[in-house]
Amino acid sequence: MAESDNPTFKEQFLDPVAGFGVTFRTMFKKVVTEQYPFEKMPTAPRFHGRHQLNRWPDGLEKCIGCELCAWACPADAIYVEGASNSDAADGERFSPGERYGRVYQINYLRCILCGLCIEACPTRALTMTNEYELADNNRADLIYEKSDLLAPLLPGMEQPPHPMMLGDDEGAYYRGEFAAPAPGSAASQQGSEG
Ligand code: SF4
Ligand code: SF4
Fold this sequence. Notes:
12% strand; 3-stranded antiparallel β-sheet; membrane; iron; Alpha-Beta Plaits; iron-sulfur; two-stranded antiparallel sheet; alpha+beta; EC 7.1.1.-; NADH_quinone_OxRdtase_chainI; binds iron/sulfur cluster
């Protein structure tokens, strides 16, 4: 006769009671279920969420279209096309320096939020926010364009294209050797003069 045909006293009586014991004890413990999406819990401060393309204090874009982020990405999720800035009368300036990111896309169907791209960025143009709600009901909307990723304009910033507005020269601009643009703004006045 097989061993399983003769359950022991423990298997027959104590084991089922022990199982119910776990259920019974758990009934009196504090509930840990999170009521998402009705209650949103804060993330860890360094949580890797949606990316952001940052700006200089006058509103110019920090991205110089160098594509280093795209090369660093293990998931091939970033697409960048650079273009030249120009201070000529018929030209446009979107960032300090020679070039800017004319096209910038991140494909969140591919991105694994590893953060290698932000480590590769030489200008700290690309950082990551704590925003984690990156779901949608179609694939196209999960390819974020530059307009979706650019940081909002803060008080004192002006929508590019416009010349570099702060500091006495490029060195002062990059080193931040200027008074912070006042809301409203000192930067705007310099811009209209330049
Ligand atoms: S977080 Fe990682 S996977 Fe996502 S775009 Fe950056 S490098 Fe690529
Ligand atoms: S985000 Fe940074 S690394 Fe990527 S293209 Fe712009 S400047 Fe280069």
